[in-house]
Amino acid sequence: MLEVSVAGLENATLIEVSGRVDSMTANQLGEALSNPIDDGHVNIVLDLSGVDYMSSAGLREIIAALKKVKRVAGDLRIAQPSSRVMEVFEMAGIDTLVRIFASRVEAVESY
Asked: Which among 5, 40, 87, 105 is least surrounded, fewest beta carbons within 10 Å?
């Protein structure tokens, strides 16, 4: 099961995700990322502190959202990935494409 909450902040949109991001739940993550972008909110902070598993389907959704915001001069930044999720990012090379922060406050303030 995946839980997602979206909060509009002054300079970014914070998307908090918890649970497992796998082939069954990746679409839910994709929608949570796409909806604010479609509404013109292109500075996204994705808080993954509550995610204990990330599959390649989840990685695809993050990359798709990153490409979408970059096209409109926005950015997607990741906050607090667990060590397990960080390992997946490093293996896939995501850590070289996306700025990753130790806390959500740092990520939000980076905009």
From this structure: 40
